[in-house]
Amino acid sequence: MKIAPSPGVAPATVDAQFAELRDRVTALERWREEHSEGRRGARDAADRALLVAIAESIGDRRFMSAELMHHATTIAPALHEALRAADVQDAHELGVLFRRLHGVTIDGMRVERTDTTRDGVRWCVRLLREDDHRIIASGEDRGHD
Predict the structure, then answer these.
(1) Which of 42, 46, 92, 100 fits as disulfide partner to 86, beta carbons 3.0 to 4.6 Å?
(2) What domain range is 18 assigned to?
(3) Residue 25: which pLDDT band, with cuts at 50, 70 and 90?
(4) Using CA atoms, how far apart are residues 59 and 123, in angstroms rounded to an integer?
(5) Is 77 found in the same domain as 18?
(6) Where are the alpha helices (DSSP H) in the chain?
(7) Angle (CA) 22 36 51, round 5°
């Protein structure tokens, strides 16, 4: 990217200053990524196992936290056990977990926020192909990168 220099400033000086700023921004972004790990992503194997249990129980269907909790307690005992193992006791705690996992790829899966309504947030656990990391939903390639 070329920037028009101010009067009396050599173009090479502006280019050098721009390159230095770009390098600083890159370093800051890398530092932020390295130091935000504790706040985002799976804390332990139980969080990862919960994503597997959700995918096995409901596939890639959209859901609200309260709906998933109800499903786990009434229909899906394996999902209920995975929730307990992940220290999730209610829909609020599940929402907190999903906000932490949102957008992070974990073992070929990614939690995504699909919609926000008056009633709450709708989530989905997407399965990713390893070869190109495109999102696979209902067996069809949606073309997301």
Answers:
(1) 46
(2) 10-39
(3) confident
(4) 12
(5) no
(6) 11-35, 45-58, 65-74, 77-85, 91-101
(7) 125
